[in-house]
Specification:
Strand order of the largest sheet: 5-4-3-7-6
Radius of gyration: 13 Å
Structural class: alpha/beta
Distance between the termini: 38 Å
Helix content: 10-25%
Strand content: 25-35%
Number of helices: 3
Length: 131
C-alpha cells in the first residue's frame, strides 16, 4: 500500500530560507535535510500574503494526531535556534517539523520519525503566526 503525499504549499521566501538551511546541515543531518529538500521541491509556492491561514508555515502553531498511537500534540514550528521541546517549540530540522511544513488542516502524511518508523500524522488545527 502506498500513501501518496498530499499536496503542500509554502511561502516562497520561507522555501528559499529553508532550502539554504537544509543544505547547510546535509552533512550533520542527512535524513532531515533530504526530507526537507524533497518537501520544498514538491511544494506549490505562494507569496506570504496569499497563503491560506490553515497552512502550516514557520512559526505556526499546529495541532496534530499521530494516528498510530492516537496521541494529540500541539507544537509551534520554529527555526533551530528557537527550538525548545519542553515549551512545545519544535525545529524545522526534526523529522516531524519537516513533515508538518506546508500541510493544511485536515491533511495527513505518512512520515518517518527520528527512529525511522513511519507514522501517519493528521493535522487537526493550524493557528497562523501572531494569531
Amino acid at each position: 500500500m502506498t500513501d501518496e503525499k498530499p499536496p503542500i504549499r509554502m511561502i516562497d521566501a520561507e522555501a528559499d530560507k529553508l532550502a539554504t538551511l537544509a543544505m547547510s546541515v546535509e552533512t550533520r543531518l542527512p535524513q532531515v535535510a533530504e526530507l526537507l529538500l524533497a518537501e520544498i521541491d514538491r511544494a506549490e509556492l505562494h507569496a506570504a500574503d496569499a497563503m491560506p491561514a490553515d497552512v502550516v508555515t514557520m512559526l505556526s502553531t499546529v495541532e496534530f494526531v499521530d494516528e498510530g498511537s492516537g496521541a494529540v500534540r500541539t507544537v509551534s514550528l520554529v527555526w533551530p535556534a528557537d527550538a525548545d521541546i519542553a515549551a512545545g517549540r519544535i525545529s524545522i530540522l526534526t523529522p516531524v517539523g519537516a513533515g508538518l511544513i506546508g500541510l493544511s488542516a485536515g491533511q495527513a502524511i505518512r512520515w518517518p520519525d527520528r527512529d525511522g518508523h513511519e507514522r501517519r500524522l493528521r493535522i487537526t488545527r493550524v493557528t497562523p503566526p501572531g494569531a
